[in-house]
Specification:
Number of helices: 7
Mean pLDDT: 84
Helix content: 10-25%
Shape: globular
Distance between the termini: 43 Å
Radius of gyration: 22 Å
Largest sheet: 7 strands, mixed
Order of helices and strands: EEEEEEEEEEHEHEHEEEHHHHEEE
Number of strands: 18
Strand content: 15-25%
Low-confidence stretches: 57-62, 356-382
């Protein structure tokens, strides 16, 4: 366990926290005017190894020191908001004016509070303004894969996402989960690299629904396909003839599950553990919020929650961010895919983008018509 203190005066700034892997959706910008929940679980933090201010919105303009620490807002201690650093103000603050939280003891800016619409709520500690201090005894040992499988639950593919200023989702279709769209964006980039420019087959069911349409569009037809299968802890040994393995990422260490034997040479495509669990054994219906816990083996008789009527679309920002950082991106066919991302968005293959206007005003773009709408009336900037 660790606490973070002000580098200037040593005052405590956080509750005791344990380190976990950086969520794949940490920098996701989802929809237009949507109200996303808190990103990090209480009592945890993650470190972003890349430079850039939170949230990083421009791939070509990264600045700031690497190593920003992300945590839940409720875990902060001894801090104050800086009113003149309130960048954003569409529905909240987004840190676009620099750190907007200061140490209460000495006044030094130490963090950025993020809670604007379309962004995951979080606090980002500036790595050059805080120090990490160990608390407690020896280092905690990460859970084993067997322990994780015993206690981890799958991430539902559909979840209610509300908008600021609008009623909650009641008796309406739940959209595809933003977590799934971000996870699929990362996995799709890896699948393209693993394909080596050949078609890729994936298992049927939910996995096919998530990846098949994009793979068929982005990859050529004709050459012998490469085969991708789900593999991971608690399953039988992967097929040694599989070329690609869709495997879980350890939520504490960030390491991907690695098979033994002949399958160890297959390309491993990382998936968040909760998404991987749901792909391997998806629930027939999304869970319905309720109080209490049902006994083991008892089935619900609630009316089913209507699922999203639209086809699945991966997150284009996460897809692009991941593909840019894979060494194979130098291949001409992959560079062409990167250049054509706006075209794939317009065609409905990838999730529509939410753009950023002047002074943090959120603007939405209808890629079917090219119309750009600003919620604040500010001139949109490309």
């Amino acid at each position: 366990m660790f606490v973070f203190v002000c580098a200037g005066c040593g005052a405590g700034l956080t509750a005791p926290l344990s380190q976990v892997a950086l969520p794949v959706h940490a920098h996701q910008v989802y929809g237009n005017g949507t109200r996303l929940p808190v990103l990090m679980e209480p009592g945890t933090f993650a470190v972003d190894p890349e430079p850039g201010p939170p949230p990083r919105r421009r791939e070509t303009a990264l600045d700031g020191a690497p190593g920003a620490i992300i945590m839940a807002p409720g875990d902060t201690r001894g801090t104050l908001l800086i009113p003149e650093k309130g960048g954003g103000h569409c529905c909240g603050v987004d840190g676009s004016d620099g750190p907007n939280m200061a140490c209460q003891a000495c006044g030094q800016p130490v963090a950025s509070r993020i809670d604007d619409c379309s962004l995951w709520q979080a606090v980002w500690l500036a790595p050059d303004a805080v120090l990490r201090r160990r608390v407690g005894g020896a280092d905690a040992v990460p859970l084993s894969w067997a322990e994780l499988m015993a206690e981890e639950k799958g991430t539902p593919p559909f979840e209610p996402v509300a908008r600021w200023g609008s009623p909650a989702w009641v008796n309406t279709p739940w959209p595809w989960s933003p977590r799934w769209e971000a996870a699929a964006g990362q996995a799709l980039a890896h699948l393209l690299v693993a394909s080596q420019g050949r078609p890729v087959t994936v298992p049927g069911g939910l996995t096919e629904e998530v990846f098949r349409r994009a793979l068929d569009t982005l990859l050529p037809t004709g050459p012998p396909p490469r085969r991708a299968v789900l593999a991971g802890p608690g399953q039988s040994a992967p097929d040694p003839d599989a070329d690609i393995l869709l495997v879980p990422v350890h939520p504490q260490t960030g390491e991907t599950w690695t098979p033994t034997g002949p399958a160890a040479s297959a390309y491993r495509v990382p998936l968040p553990l909760g998404v991987w669990l749901s792909l391997g054994s998806p629930e027939p219906l999304p869970p319905v919020p309720a109080s209490g816990v049902l006994p083991e083996g008892v089935l619900r008789d609630d009316p089913p929650v209507p699922r999203s009527p639209r086809l699945f679309r991966a997150d284009p920002r996460v897809f692009r961010h991941t593909l840019l950082r894979l060494s194979a991106v130098g291949s001409p066919w992959l560079r062409e895919i990167l250049e054509n991302i706006p075209q794939y968005v317009r065609a409905g293959l990838l999730q529509p983008l939410s753009l950023q206007g002047r002074r943090g005003h959120r603007i939405g773009c209808d890629f079917a018509t090219g119309e750009v709408r600003s919620k604040s009336g500010a001139d949109p900037q490309r």
